[in-house]
Amino acid sequence: MNMKKASYLLLCCLPFLAGCSEEKKAMPGEKYSIFVVEKTDQTLQTRYPTTLRGRQTVEVRPQVSGTITDILINEGDEVRRGQVLFVIDQVPYRAALETALANVKSAEAQLRTAKLTAESKEALYREQVISDFDLQTARNQQLEAEAAVAQAKAAVTNARNNLSYTEVKSPVDGVASMIPYRVGALVSSSIAEPLVTVSDDSEVYAYFSMAENQILDLIQEHGSLQKACASMPPVSLFMNNGNEYTEKGRIDAISGTVDESTGAVRLRAVFPNAGHLLRNGGSGSVSVPTVHKNCIAIPQSATYELQNRIFAWKVVDGKTKSTPLTVYKYNDGKTYIVTSGLAVGDIVVAEGAGLLREGIAVDTSSASKTSTKTSTQK
Description:
CATH architecture of the largest domain: Beta Barrel
Number of domains: 4
Shape: elongated
CATH topology of the largest domain: Elongation Factor Tu (Ef-tu), domain 3
CATH superfamily of the largest domain: Efflux pump adaptor protein, beta barrel domain
Order of helices and strands: HEEEEEHHEEEEHHEEEEEEEEE
Low-confidence stretches: 1-27, 370-378
Helix content: 25-40%
Number of helices: 5
Strand content: 25-35%
CATH class of the largest domain: Mainly Beta
Structural class: alpha+beta
Mean pLDDT: 86
């Protein structure tokens, strides 16, 4: 009876034991985030720290000395070219102009007298009443009187200019800076600090630097510095608060020299600034895109470094295999462009590359082709 019960229990358990065996045999391995390599168009965004400058920044200083009698702008105002910004005491300069005008009249009167004298001497000379010396002396006095008139008129012009300089005008359109002087301050052309700085920021220049080897690559690729500059794609600007500026810019100048201290080359990008959001002296970063057509790109999280070489974990026959990669020498800090080591259709572990080891079984049932398409970074 006991034998029959044991046999019966054994028969009942066989299906469960068989099921467990099949389940164990079907286990595909550990589940990791993986993707299937495919070729795609890739745009890498590389950021460079930048300083901003207005299109034209002018320090306004007086051309004459005196005390400020009026300030006609407020700090931060938009000003136009030729607009009067400051007035310097005009009283002494008006007096100087009146004196100069009076000197002209005096000199002209002396000239008329000298002409009459010369004409009289010529008549006497023709009658042989006076000598040649007396005639030449009269003529020289007339020339001296003409020169005195010319000098007096030049002094009038100078006095008019000085009087006009008492109205200090803006040389450019732009925005006024802070004003360090107040009414009553004594100023001159030699003051250390300008009356005001006017910045024309209708366009803003963003200055940044790239490594010399990057510029050399561009020149070799395009044939010349000018062609390299013309071929650069539109660039973006990220402001100091981290937000992206709405307008795109263009690189319009590349320095022809290399900074010996840094080994870098200066570039300039121009951004429109109709709303005057950007200010002279500001900072941020310029994002320069690099377009790669029909390439293999993988996230850097799918790689690890060993002895200055880059590796990724391919899944071959369901198990991890370390694979050395050759990547494009520039990157955006998030994505690698792979030039050798991977092929279309390879399965790669997407995350945790530094924690894996050779030969780990990986479940490849969830492999997708989406990871490399999402790596256009900003």
